[in-house]
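Loading example: each entry is read as two labelled lines plus one structure line.
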Amino acid sequence: MLLTLANTYRELLNYERDPSKLKRGYGGYEVNSMIEREPSNPGYSVLFERANAVVPLFDYLYFELRRVQTPAVKAFIEPFGKCYSLTIGTHCNAHIGAELDAIGDMWGTSVDVLFKAARLALETDIANSAPEFDSVLSMCEHRFNLDATAGEGAIALFSRVVRKHTDCLLEIKELKARLVLEEAKAKTLGDIKDKASMLSLIQPLLGKRQFDLIDL
Amino acid sequence: MCEHRFNLDATAGEGAIALFSRVVRKHTDCLLEIKELKARLVLEEAKAKTLGDIKDKASMLSLIQPLLGKRQFDLIDL
């Protein structure tokens, strides 16, 4: 779960730096993803204008963060979920509109506030995952004799893992080069073997010819 | 030509049968070497894959560790 959190956090930071990277149509395969969304408060109508980056962000946050089942993130996306649920027997647009109004009240109509709220929810859950973080860290530390120093931290560990990985890739490269050479050598030796076998078959005949010539 | 390749230490006039058996030995050694190299390659590739996974995890951890540090710092401040 910690890694899912961390992955989502990294992705969110990237999108926050450059919202234009957000793809449109997140969750397009989900039921109700194409639901009509119109806030009843005209002040929030900008929320769902196509040009507003909140539209893809809204879809992204709901469909991506839903995978993260941690308390703060769950609480954060709860109002989003209601926007994607049709309640039987009620006036759909009115229901959805009310939820959108609530979202507008909470986060306004610009992407910045929404991004910040999402990031804070993720940071809260990450900060509360310290024990899990320690167990993942020690799992990383104790593999491949990485000689980890207790509490040395993830950055130092990361650079050691990178070095080890690079060494391993170099070793693979050398092994492959040696393999190519050895295979070429085996092929040549195979050819010579065939020739030597042939020679050993005909050598007595040559000897006989030499012997016959001496006899003459 | 057979004698002077791969340091087969040919003795002049030793004959084709002796040369043939030395070539066979050399060829067998070479095939064994290839087998060992292939086994080592498989092991190293598996190791590289695992290290790659750990690298991803450690990279991720190094990203979020400051948050945990911040939390610990905040607690000390209280």
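Helices of chain B lie at 16-77.
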